[in-house]
Design goal:
Layout lengths: L2 H94 L2 E4 L11 H13 L10 E6 L10 E5 L2 H10 L1
Length: about 170
C-alpha cells in the first residue's frame, strides 16, 4: 500500500473514530441530561416529603402533648370521683345511722300512717315502762316489692338514742 493510500485510510479511520466519539458524547450528554432531570425530580420529591414529615412530626408532638394533658385530667377526675364516692358513702351511712329495719309486721297493719303506727307499736312490744318519753319518728315506709311475705319497714328516728335503746331492748 502506498503512503497516499495509508493516509487516506488513516484519515477515514480518524474520521470514523471522531464520528463515533461525537455520537458517544451526544449520547452521554443526553443521558446525563435525563439523569439530571430525574435527580431534580427526586430532590423535589424529597423536599416535599421532608416538609410532610416535619408537619407530621409537629402534629404527632401536639397530639402527644394533648394526650398527656388528657391523661392528667383523667387522673385528676378519677381521684375526684373516688373522693366523691367516699364522701357519698359516708353521707349515706350517716343518713342511715338513725334507721331501723323492722321485719315480720303483717302487711297493712300500719294502715295509712306508718309513723303513727310504729310510735305506738314499738313501746307496746318493748314495754311502755322502758320509754320515759314518746318514741318520735321522722318517717317510716315499707320497702321492696309485695311478695308472699310481709315487706320490711324502714323507720328513721329523730333521736339516735331512741334507736340505740330500741336495738338494746329488741
Amino acid at each position: 500500500m502506498a503512503d497516499g493510500e495509508k493516509e487516506t485510510s488513516f484519515s477515514k479511520l480518524l474520521l470514523a473514530i471522531q464520528e463515533t466519539k461525537d455520537d458517544l458524547t451526544k449520547h452521554i450528554d443526553k443521558k446525563t441530561a435525563d439523569i439530571q432531570i430525574t435527580l431534580t425530580k427526586i430532590e423535589s420529591s424529597l423536599s416535599t416529603l421532608a416538609e410532610q414529615v416535619e408537619e407530621i412530626q409537629t402534629r404527632v408532638s401536639t397530639n402527644e402533648d394533648n394526650i398527656k394533658d388528657a391523661r392528667d385530667r383523667v387522673g385528676e377526675m378519677e381521684k375526684l370521683i373516688t373522693h366523691l364516692k367516699d364522701k357519698t358513702d359516708d353521707l349515706e351511712n350517716r343518713s342511715r345511722r338513725s334507721n331501723i329495719r323492722i321485719t315480720n309486721v303483717p302487711e297493712q297493719a300500719e294502715g295509712r300512717d306508718a309513723v303513727g303506727f310504729l310510735e305506738k307499736f314499738i313501746p307496746e312490744i318493748l314495754g311502755k315502762d322502758n320509754f320515759t318519753s314518746p318514741v318520735t319518728l321522722e318517717r317510716a315506709h315499707r320497702i321492696g316489692k309485695k311478695l308472699d311475705r310481709p315487706r320490711p319497714i324502714i323507720a328513721k328516728f329523730l333521736n339516735f338514742r331512741d334507736k340505740e335503746k330500741i336495738l338494746r331492748l329488741a
